[in-house]
Design brief:
The chain has 376 residues and is an alpha+beta fold. The protein contains 12 helices and 13 strands. The strands form 4 sheets. It has a 5-stranded mixed barrel with strand order 1-2-3-5-4. A 3-stranded mixed sheet has the order 8-12-13. A hairpin with a 5-residue loop joins strand 4 and strand 5. About 2% of the residues have low confidence.
């Protein structure tokens, strides 16, 4: 990469990378690092009366407070953050103190991956931390991370630009708390649905993604070409037809979490590539499907809020569409709606004769009401 295309911080980080290599430190080791503990479990299980516990953790450096020969480092792993106490004489027991004085203080940057081996203790301020005995560089980060600072519950320099967050989702996951919970809850919902369907005796299947004839929905497909067969193929827009063929073939119930592709409009909540779950069961009707869907929904809710209480005591709420629409289809309601439409038409076309507009609107209202009465 041309050095002119790099930012100042990227140039500094690459210089640190070269210095690490000159010192014989591999910034990208391929060896396995034996992690045996995680931040959330360490904090939740710590007890002042328990024997000293040795742990090995790994994660990103998200902050440092350097104070002479002793420093504090904030380490973020896959489950949270924990403070690490780093003492020069502890990680450098010999005469050579370069690991602390040079590597830790000068060549280590925010975002680097490190491994820490030490024991858990509580600091004088009461924060549960890890007292490091050894420090290992696991991966050097060449691009800087956004630094979100919190003070009195207010975030400064937050990474909250919607365009950047969705285009660089990996950065959003690192710096913004709570984003990872969305992925975790999604997996829990999928697992609970699979478990519920499997317990009911239905089978998860896989159907073709490349199809010679796209079907199952009214949508524009993505088109590709099969070189060996020299034929056009389409990415599926729905898996409905193949699932129905399995029912015809003798399965009682089948379902699939499928990736569908529709070459149509898109926005933040409508992606051309999306996940769809479809289930088909033989010998059932729509009333059974409503009961089954309600029970599956309660199961998903319990999976997302394990140990919590369901709102409404887990009852399924239904609405009578005929009763709800009866008031909207009443002639008086339509007459009132058409009157509001006439007001908008009057404001949009002021040049028209008022008498002509009134006569035409009244005729439209009467005609609509007569058609509705005949339909009833």
């Amino acid at each position: 990469m041309n050095v002119l295309e790099l930012s100042e911080q990227e140039i500094v980080r690459r210089a640190s990378l070269d210095e690490l290599r000159r010192r014989g430190i591999n910034p990208y080791p391929a060896a396995r690092y034996p992690v045996d503990a995680y931040s959330d479990e360490i904090v939740s299980s710590f007890s002042d009366d328990a024997p000293q516990r040795d742990v090995v953790v790994a994660g990103r450096v998200m902050g440092r407070r350097i104070m002479g020969k002793a420093s504090f480092m904030e380490l973020q792993d896959s489950r949270g953050r924990i403070q690490v106490y780093v003492n020069r004489d502890e990680i450098c027991p010999g005469e050579d103190k370069d690991l602390y004085n040079v590597v830790f203080k000068k060549l280590l940057d925010i975002g680097d991956f490190v491994g820490v081996e030490g024991h858990v203790f509580r600091t004088q301020t009461g924060e549960i931390s890890i007292h490091a005995r050894s420090l290992t560089l696991l991966s050097k980060s060449l691009r800087p991370l956004p630094i979100v600072k919190m003070k009195d519950g207010v975030a400064y320099d937050a990474f909250d630009d919607p365009e950047l967050r969705y285009r660089r989702r990996y950065v959003d996951l690192v710096v913004n708390d709570g984003v990872k919970d969305i992925f975790i809850k999604r997996t829990k919902v999928y697992n609970s649905m699979r478990s519920y369907f499997n317990e009911a005796g239905y089978m998860e299947v896989e159907t073709p993604i490349l199809q010679s004839i796209p079907g199952g929905a009214a949508a524009r497909p993505f088109i590709t070409h099969h070189n060996a067969l020299d034929i056009p193929l389409y990415l599926r827009i729905a898996d409905e037809l193949y699932l129905k063929r399995l029912i015809v073939g003798g399965f009682e119930g089948v379902y699939e979490f499928s990736k569908n592709f529709r070459n149509e409009g898109m926005d933040r909540t409508h992606n051309p590539e999306f996940t769809c779950m479809e289930i088909y069961v033989a010998y059932k009707d729509y009333n059974w499907m409503m009961d089954f869907t309600g029970a599956a929904s309660r199961s998903r809710h319990q999976a997302r809020h394990r140990g919590g209480r369901l709102d409404g005591q887990g009852q399924t709420h239904r609405r009578d569409i005929r009763r709800d629409l009866r008031g909207h289809l009443h002639p008086a309601y339509l007459y009132n709606r058409l009157s509001h439409r006439d007001v908008a038409a009057h404001q949009a076309s002021p040049r028209q004769s008022r008498t002509h507009r009134a006569l035409r609107a009244d005729g439209q209202r009467q005609g609509a009401c007569q058609r509705l009465l005949r339909a009833q």
